[in-house]
Specification:
This protein is α+β, with helices and mostly antiparallel strands. The protein folds into 3 domains: 172 residues, FAD/NAD(P)-binding domain; 155 residues, D-Amino Acid Oxidase, Chain A, domain 2; 129 residues, no CATH class. It contains 16 helices and 22 strands. The strands form 4 sheets. Strands 5, 6, 7, 13, 14, 15, 16, 17 and 18 form a 9-stranded mixed beta sheet that branches. Strands 1, 2, 9, 10, 11, 12, 19 and 20 form an 8-stranded mixed beta sheet that branches. The two termini are 36 Å apart. The relative contact order is 0.14.
């Protein structure tokens, strides 16, 4: 068994863990981050992609609202290339409390959250599909953010400053020496080898799996898990983030992301981080609530549904509270103070929008414990800007018009939905050794995430990948990829969506023999 030592070990490759590792690396600390799968596989890759203005929590959670408003401004400076500045609207429908908008507007002003009331005619000129019976409308600084792009840039930033990111490395156990955490046993899932890693400090940023980590260290974590289901519509019904102007509840927001619009979200308490099953009532509720904002939405075609798990701080005094009632503010727990265990810190709660602030507070505590005098610089340090941005809606038609007919093999369109060219795929395969399967390409290029849901692009991408890998991907890998797409379609499989799903299944199972049983026949 090989061994490694570092100053800081970060457990979890979501946005929170990556942000902590980036901040620590910028301050000159020796840092290693481990992730059991790929980056953004947990909560960071299972949300609606909203960059919060702070307005959503102005009355229900003022601390989170203030943090979101401040971090919104910072992220626009340091990660602008991951953000589409859609703007946001808060609107009062006939079903919403009539006294809420005035109280909400006053709270936003008090918290320094930019907000402007606009006329209904201006609102409808901006978003003509909105309900004409809306009584009031407010403009805020919401936006959509690509969490996969953000995660990739954080990895690049960590590595550029000497940090180490170990993907597909699962934590097997934590080793204590009396009241001190001293070592972690880690398994490399790709080849089955084990690694012992000693560190001065261990940072638990595992999101929904955070309680599993603390259990390994023999301490308790006041964590509650709330499942949120989302539905993506097959096209972009709005170009502005639209929120209901009422207390946060199920189905009160629509977020335009890429080529689709996302309806969100429910909040159901669950026991396990893998409890991602979607119930029919959740889909029905999201479509019905969305119809109050966009009349006729229920007659539009839903593309797919998925769920993510919110890791929420639940102190003892809120032990019986529903997850919807719990605050979204983040908490940095020093287990030396809470449990008498040295060298162990957990970071839970918070939002994608506040990941940088969460990291700053965590690394401030790290530096304090290591007696290192290094200030945070992430608020003024832009993330590395990658040259290729492969999916930007405003430039889709321009990109296609530049190459109306293929001039070379690289100009061939592989994914019509997201306008991904063969050259885009080959560029990722050549420059990203961590890309090992089609799901990695999906996170990089949005392959399979458009309206056809991998109906035509998956087998093309698989064929191109086979030319670059020394061991060509198997039919099992192709099946696993499209099966994940079908799994998201199944909760909304009726009408034309069901027809498309069955057509796609027949292509892969009958024509290409890419079913699980084909592995035994080959």
């Amino acid at each position: 068994m090989s061994s490694l030592s570092t100053q800081v070990l970060v457990i979890g490759g979501g946005t929170t863990g990556l942000g902590i590792a980036w901040d620590a690396a910028l301050r000159g600390l020796k840092v290693v981050l481990i992730e059991q799968s790929d980056i953004g596989q947990g909560t960071s890759g299972r949300h609606h992609g909203l960059l919060h203005s702070g307005g959503r929590y102005a009355l229900s959670d003022p601390a989170s609202a203030r943090d979101c408003a401040s971090e919104n401004r910072i992220l626009r400076k340091i990660a602008s290339h991951t953000i589409e500045d859609t703007g946001g609207l808060f609107v009062a429908t006939p079903s919403d409390p009539v006294d809420y908008p005035d109280r909400w507007f006053s709270a936003c002003s008090h918290l320094n959250i930019p907000v402007e009331e606009i006329s209904l005619s201006t609102m409808l000129e901006r978003e003509p599909l909105l309900n004409p019976r809306i009584s009031r409308s407010f403009l805020v600084q919401d936006a959509s953010i690509d969490s996969f792009d953000l995660a990739h840039l954080l990895v690049k930033g960590i590595q550029e400053h000497g940090g180490v990111v170990l993907l597909r490395h699962r934590l097997e156990s934590l080793i204590r020496h009396q009241d001190r955490l001293v070592e972690a046993k880690i398994k490399d899932i790709s080849n089955g080898t084990s690694l012992r890693l000693s560190a001065n400090l261990f940072i638990n940023a595992a999101g929904p799996w955070a309680k599993t980590i603390t259990t390994m260290a023999e301490v308790e974590l006041p964590l509650a898990l709330g499942k949120g289901t989302l539905v993506a519509m097959s096209h972009r019904l709005v170009n502005t983030v639209v929120n209901r102007c009422k207390r946060p509840s199920d189905g009160d927001i629509i977020v335009p992301v890429g080529t689709v619009a996302i309806l969100g979200t429910t909040d159901v308490p669950v026991k396990e981080p893998t409890s991602l099953d979607i119930q029919p009532w959740e889909v029905d509720l999201l479509l019905a609530e969305g119809d109050l904002l966009l009349p006729g939405l229920r007659d539009s075609r839903p593309l797919r549904a998925w769920a993510g798990i919110r890791p929420l701080y639940q102190p003892a005094e809120n032990g019986n509270a529903h997850t919807r009632a719990l605050l979204r503010a983040h908490v940095v727990l020093d287990h030396e103070e809470t449990d008498g265990l040295q060298c162990f810190i957990s970071v839970i709660g918070g939002k994608l929008t506040t990941f940088r602030l969460m990291a700053e507070e965590a690394v401030d505590l790290i530096c304090d414990k290591l007696e290192i005098d290094q200030k945070c610089s992430t608020a003024s340090t832009p993330l590395p800007h990658e040259s290729g941005q492969f999916h930007s809606l405003p430039s889709r038609l321009e990109k296609l018009e530049e190459h109306p007919y293929p001039h070379s093999i690289n100009d061939q369109i592989v994914c019509e939905c997201e306008l991904v060219m063969r050259g885009d795929i080959e560029l990722v395969l050549e420059n990203s050794p961590a890309v090992t399967d089609l799901d990695d390409l999906r996170r990089d290029l949005r392959i399979g995430m458009g309206p056809c849901q991998a109906g035509f692009c998956a087998y093309r991408a698989c064929a191109i990948s086979s030319e670059h890998f020394s061991s060509p991907p198997s039919l099992k890998g192709l099946h696993n990829f499209v099966y994940e797409r079908w799994k998201g379609i199944r909760p909304v499989a009726w009408g034309s969506t069901l027809q498309q799903m069955e057509f796609s299944r027949r292509i892969y199972l009958d024509l290409l023999a890419a079913g699980p049983e084909s592995e035994n026949r080959s």
